[in-house]
Amino acid sequence: MNSILDRRLTPARPDLAARHLAGQVEARAFADSVMLRVVAPIAPLRREPRPDAPLDTEALAGEVVAIYEQYEGWAWGQLGSDGYVGYLPDDALRSDAPEPTHRVSALLSHVYPGPSIKLPPLALLPLGATVAVSGESGDFLVLADGGYLWRGHLQPPGAVESDFVAVAERFEHLPYLWGGKTAQGLDCSGLTQVSLAAAGIAAPRDTDMQEQALGTALAFDDSLSGLKRGDIVFWKGHVGLMTDAETLLHATAYTMNVYREPLRTARDRISKNSFGAITSIRRLG
C-alpha cells in the first residue's frame, strides 16, 4: 500500500489532516503541527482516543511527536522516529522538555530521587529512551528534569551496539505484548525495531513495512540452509531474527514471550497454525 494512503503513516482523518497533505487527501480541515516531546517513560500510541483502544505501538521518553490536535486528554499526531500515527495521552507530552543528551542502554533503568540505589525509584525507563543530563553525582548522572540515573545505563545518542541480535537476545523470556516495544512487553516487529535501533539501524514499525525496507532478499528452499546470524525471517504478519544458521528468536503469542527455537520447528508450526509460509528471508548489508 502506498504510504500516503496507509492510515498508520498518514496524519489524515475525514475531519482533520496535516496541512502538508492538502491537495493529496480529503479532509474537512487541515492543521499545522506542534512539535512536542515525550516525557513519560513509555507513552502508548492508540488507534482511537480512549484507554481501551488497541495499542498500535509505543513512544519512548525523549521522542519528538508532531501533534495536530489536542482534545479531551488525547493528542493526535505522528511519531518522529518511525512516522506512526495515532493518539497519545496528552499528559505524556511537553513543549518545553529539554533536548536529550543520552540514551538508555539497559533494558530497563530506574530513575531515583537522589544519588542512591536505596531510595524509592521515581520512574522506570526502557532501552532506547533518551534523557537530558545536566550534571553528575558519583555513580549517577543528574537529569535536567530531576532525578538520577546510574551512569552505566546511559550512553551518548551516537553510541551504538555492534550486534543487534545480541540486543534482541537480552529480551529472551520477557513477555509478549501486542504493540509493545520495551522489556515490559513487546511484539515481534517491536523486538526487531528496538534491537536494530540500538545498533543505529532505523527500521519501520510493522512487519510488512520492515519486509519492504530492510536488507536484501535471500533465495531459500525447504532445507532453509545457508542462513546466518542476523538474517531476518518474515511471514505475513510475523518476523523473527536468526541467532545462528538454524535458530530463530522471536516475540510470539505461541509462548507469550520472546522465544528461541529451531527455525524449521517454527516454520512448520506457523505454516500450519497461523501466518502461513515464510514470505522472505532478508539479510542486512
UniProtKB/TrEMBL annotation:
InterPro entries: NLP_P60_dom, Papain-like_cys_pep_sf, PG_Endopeptidase_C40, SH3_16. Residues 158-285 form the NlpC/P60 domain. The keyword Protease applies. The keyword DNA damage does not apply. Pfam families: NLPC_P60, SH3_16. One of its GO terms (molecular function) is cysteine-type peptidase activity. Keywords: Hydrolase, Protease, Thiol protease. One of its GO terms (biological process) is proteolysis. Belongs to the peptidase C40 family. This is Peptidoglycan endopeptidase.
